[in-house]
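Session log. Operator J.P. requested a structure for one protein chain; no other inputs attached. Running the standard single-chain path with token output.
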Amino acid sequence: LLCLCCRAAAERLRYAIAEELPTGSLVGPLARDLGLSPDQLPARKLRVASAGKKQLKYFTVSEENGNLYVSERLDREELCGESASCSVSFEALVHNPLNVFHVQVDIEDVNDNAPRFPQGNYQLEINELTSPGARFHLGMAEDADVGSNSLQGYELEDNGYFTVEVKESQDGSKFAELVLRSALDREIEQSLRLVLTALDGGGPPRSGTAQLWINVTDANDNPPVFAQDKYHATVREDAPPGLAVVNVSASDADAGTNAHITYGFGETPAKVLQKFMVDAESGTITLQGALDFEDTRGYTLFVEAKDGGGLVAHCKVKVEVLDVNDNAPEITILSLSSPVPEDAPVGTVVALLKVRDRDSGENGEVSCELSGEAPLSIVASSGGSYKVVTASALDREQAGEHRVTVVARDRGRPALWSRAELVLEVSDVNDNAPVFSEAAYSAYVWENNAAGALVLRVSAWDADAGANGRVSYWLAGGSAGAAGAAPLVSVEARSGAVYAQRSFDYEQCREFALTLRAQDGGAPARSSTATLRVFVLDQNDNAPRVLWPAPAAAAAPAAAPAAVPFEVVPRSAEPGYLVAKVVAVDADAGRNAWLSYELLQASEPALFRLGLHSGEVRTARAVSDRDAAKQRLVALVKDHGQPALSATATLHVVLADSLQEMLPALSDGDAVSELSSDLNVILVVSLSVVSLLFVSTVMFAFFSKCRRSR
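Structure written below.
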């Protein structure tokens, strides 16, 4: 047994693996290296053992194939720290027979740690007068890895002033030194921010960085300097006081009190100082008075900056005032032609306007328009002038006055506007003729009127005004069928009343027509005409006039009885025998001329009757022997007027069958001779008529034959 143990102690297995292998990674074929076959593994019961439990947790042996595997992540830096070598040792036990083998697993370093500076920022204060070549210790970075994976050197960000050098101490650690290569100038570089990098030797290499903050301390050797020589600012004219206009800033490359700057105005006009003020500490220029673009469009300020050492710098600030639409357009009426005649041609200038806006740009651009219904339009002229012209024909009769509003509006936002009212009066021109209320008038006048009676009143209207609309009336003449009609009436020139000049007689003139003329007072005058037709109304002023029997014979039957005409009625006449017919006429018309007949007086009233409307005298019964041979009848002729007028007619009738019977009835021989004379006249007339008819027939036959022969 002792020999076996001594032999086992002399045998040692060694494996090498990298750190940070994942769980289950193969370390080595432990059973094979121990000379065990897979068939022997169950009987030999291969396992690992160690005096410390810490080593056993990292490895395990497979019961199936006897291979050694990683059972937990290995961290070389955790196990061995800064040691250059690192390994884990344990024993492998086999049974039947028992045997012990020493196993050592070397943990090889992996570059899994980057160099790390103890602090991330390093602050250095270096005066700007420090000479080149000066060195400044920066310290050392740490790297947990070993060997080539450990810290190897330092690098510094490229710059024009510093470099870094690597120094190695006696224990082999490497540290960095900052070396000044060129002179510093605080006015150029007040501070430097550099990146220091520490590099290891791994593949790929890892690095760590630190920030170097190098402040260059000052020496008072620089005056203040403005950021700009000229500043330009804009401010609206409606800006309120207290508004910050612009901020000027000056810098001083020095430090401390030498770099403390105060601001103020240089030589500046008092007018400007009333508008602006500058803050001595901040350099902010603020507004302290109201601005007016129309008064001053810009200001020039001279600002100075003074440091604690008394050095001064100057700059110019130009403040431009921006226009705000705070002025409404101003309308000035330069000329107004009122009144204007209504016959003015289209395009006549009636008003000249001047529109001005004190603002500028779009705020000062003005457009004008007319508000209101009027035959006018506005036309832009040069230099902000506008002309108001007639856009269509004027008519005073439709509108004697036109009121329009001129609205001027600028293009600002919001737009401002103003207005001015124009009152244009239209003067009258005699362009309208008088117009009668009716084209044709009719008047009805009773006859026998009084001279000067009113017949009719006519009226005409003229749309013009003044003398052009003053109408007078005249008679222009009568109709062709009313010759001499004009003197019958007269017309009053002013009122248009038509009066009768004399009394009218229906029987002489039943109607007449006149032409009336209405004429205005314009120059030249205009006129129009109307027709007046006057109808004379009939009155019952004429009594009936008897045509048969003759009124003369009826008027004096006693003085000349032999000359009285008579009618002969045979005694054998039957009732209804026509004896005679009373013929009468009435010069009136209508009912005034309707006639009726009555038998007013008769020798034998029962023997005769008189037709009421016909005037026929007929026998009412048969003539008897007792009736007197000579009968006298008086007929009354009456019209239907109010009051009625009448006339009488006397008719003599002789009852006889023959002339011989009639002669005794006549008391005077002259009557017989008159009767014979009347019969002779009748005979001569009859013979003349027959002869004339015969001669006419012969001549007609002769001319007809001659015409046929041609």
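Operator note: The first helix runs from residue 2 to 10.
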